[in-house]
Amino acid sequence: MSNKTRIILIAIMLVAAVFLSGCVDDKSATEDQSSEKITEKANSAIGQNNVTDDKKMSVPEDIDNNMTNATATASSFNVTNTTNTTSTYTYYSSGSSSSKSSGSSSKSSDSSETDTITVTDDLGRSITVPYPCERTVFLVENAMNTMYAVGGANDIVGIGKVWAEDVKAPFFKAIDSNYTVKKISNGTAQPSTETIATVNPQLVFLWASDWESADIKAIEETLNVPVYAVYIDSLDDLQNQITTFSKLIGKKEQGEKVIDVMDNEMDKVTDVTNKISDEEKPTVYWMWGDVYGTAGKTSTANDLIERSGGINVIDEWDNSSKNTEHPVLNLETLLKLNPDVIYMWYNANLDPQNITSGDNVNGIDFSDWSQLDAVKNGRVYEFSDHFVYDFHTPRLPLAMMYMAKDLYPTQFADMDLTEEADQYFVDIYGVHYPGYESAASTTQDVTDQITVSAAASLTEAFTDMETEFEAENPDIDVVCNFAASGTLRTQIEGGAPVDVFASAAEDQMDTLASKGFIYNDTREDFAKNSLVMIVPKGNTLGLTGMQDLTKSEVEKISIGNPDTVPAGKYAKEGLTIAGLWDSVSNKTLLAENVKQALVYVETGEAEAGFVFSTDASSAKNGSIEVITSVPVTTPITYPIAIVSSTQHEEDSQLFIDFVTGEKGESILEQYGFSIPQTG
Known about the structure:
Elements: H1 3-21, H2 26-37, H3 39-48, H4 65-68, E1 105-107, E2 116-120, E3 126-130, E4 136-138, H5 141-149, E5 156-159, H6 165-175, H7 179-182, H8 193-198, E6 203-207, H9 214-223, E7 227-230, H10 235-248, H11 252-273, E8 283-287, H12 300-307, E9 311-312, H13 331-337, E10 341-344, H14 352-356, E11 360-361, E12 364-365, H15 373-376, E13 380-382, H16 396-407, H17 417-429, E14 448-455, H18 459-472, E15 476-483, H19 485-493, E16 500-502, H20 506-514, E17 524-528, E18 531-536, E19 557-560, H21 566-577, H22 581-584, E20 588-591, H23 594-602, E21 608-612, H24 613-618, E22 624-630, E23 637-642, H25 649-660, H26 662-670
Parallel strand pairs: 4-5, 4-6, 6-7, 8-9, 8-10, 10-13, 14-15, 14-16, 19-20, 19-21
Antiparallel strand pairs: 1-2, 2-3, 11-12, 16-23, 17-23, 18-21, 18-22
Helix pairs in contact: 1-2, 5-10, 10-11, 11-16, 18-26, 19-20, 25-26
């Protein structure tokens, strides 16, 4: 009996128990179901970690080991002093069934058309988010490919680490001009929860094979932000994910179009292979990076083999683990199965020639494989391009074509893979392959797009303005990029494609003006703010003013980095005026922007902090307390201007006019900003 069959039977038994006993402990039922569900997936995740080099591929190819290991007990995120707070989002743990759903979504029955949407993630967990979902963070790269395919580039606000980024960055930059500024990872490490919080996400996507994933809990419990668990082990899962992503962002038709394109391209292969009898089809041994790890019957790789016209050789294995996603064999079993073809996933340290030549690589003597028919006949192949043929993305049909040409070189002799890939990239992403030049016609709606780089403290106000402005100007798409003003200034100086810059300090704008990076005649001061000192909820140390920061009980004081974060610069100024900077500067916990400074206090990482009054107002209900306002001599004013490298000067000016107009000022005042007096 397969694991999935057992899962269904367990679910039926649980339902029966409800009727027989009249009650059931929902929590324990959910835990029991989820633990049953992930047994095979935990095994596959463990198997995927059995690689000899971190450059080798596992499933999926962009996830590192501690993110896929379902047995991990500690979160891979940097979480400090997690506190339990009232959830600010609607989240439901789906205890009714532990099997995956079709990914269907539905709006809340008692909400408006554009209120919330409930979807089911890849593990069968139900989550409810704002609709359309416009602020997503991706910590799993292959799912990010899916979001780009369904037209969600502008709905991505944060991107975690990307495996082999030097290979993939040109593509991502071609389809998302703001890819670089959206990166929130530090090198090869995933971003901390504090860093994720700075981009104000509505939903975070990460790879998880377990309902009880520590990474899911780290984000949901610390940030009160729902997590979409990504786990693909079949073509159906992939297409369900495409449908769900498109519904999340309000682009259902685009999702349907992507699936239609995929189906049409796969038909080019299956129309041929379906006519080949099973007796004529070759048996295929799929080889992951751990060499003896292979494709189980419940895996996307198995779907790939079968749709490409092969038979997974593991069908002939009399071991029940073949029904897991990633079973691990040994040499004796492989020799007994004797596949006609060996198909390797990308391996940086191993080539098909090493196998056919009987080389010794990483402690494996491939001369022992010389008895295999696949080796004797030279039928050892490899997916050498791990990006284009990543079959955990909508590019799965390209992988099918690639494999089919190897399995049936005569039948697919006329198939030009480069031409097929080029047209597919145009149809799905709107760029050519290779080179990623923009196509004449794309799958995206054709609109003018302007990028607005705005200080982090403007996140809530400018997010609302983006919505209002686009409603008035449907032909203009606004993409907001929020970060510390100093960071944004550096990006503009480095050539980032920015049209409008809104700073939380005059000096950042002055620097750009002095170097000719802005049009001075478009510069306007549009908002004013104030600085406050805050402490965590409850004020357990009893702090009453800045003088109390010298107390020994105060170990950490959260401020933005004064070199790049205006709120940090003002905090240093305020502490200096109070005669406290020299005595407390060694206690400062420097944040990347003012939002991170706020999070440090909300989570208790710092005993006190300095943020703008508007940021204090935006804090989670009851998570912080304002102790006092902080006097500074430099007025806290916000200038805005058009960046001189813009190709959309007219549209950019329209946005500035909106910000400084009646509707823009109303939104600013709603979030606690004051409006500078003119004249």
